Amino acid sequence: MIRTNPDTLGNIDTKLNCLERYFKWEDDENNFHAKKENGRGRVLAENEVNLKLEEIEETLEALVVLLQFAEKGGLS
User: What is the DSSP code string of 44-62?
Assistant: First the structure.
């Protein structure tokens, strides 16, 4: 269950798979379906954040290259 927590590091697909296996049964008394959907939503939101952070990192790396090129051309 720890692997499915968005507050822990790990592969998103592994987290979703663990979440699916953990909540494989249906138990209305303990509201497992709602817990499963809530956990799934949190893991998918984590994935969206990870994708955005990767995009930001790529943009910053491109900016570094551009600035290095500009510095070689005389920009200080």
Answer: HHHHHHHHHHHHHHHHHHH
> Rounded distance, CA 31 to CA 36, Å?
9
Per-residue pLDDT tens digits for 28-76: 566 777 777 888 888 888 889 989 999 999 999 999 999 988 888 787 6
Write down the residue that tokens 């499915």 correspond to: 4
Residues with Cβ < 8 Å from 48, sequence gap 6 or more?
none
Report the half-sphere exposure of 53 (CA within 13 A, side-chain side).
6
Look up the pTM and report it: 0.63
**Alpha carbons 11 and 49: distance in angstroms, whole number:** 13
**Residue 64 parent element (H or E):** helix 32-72
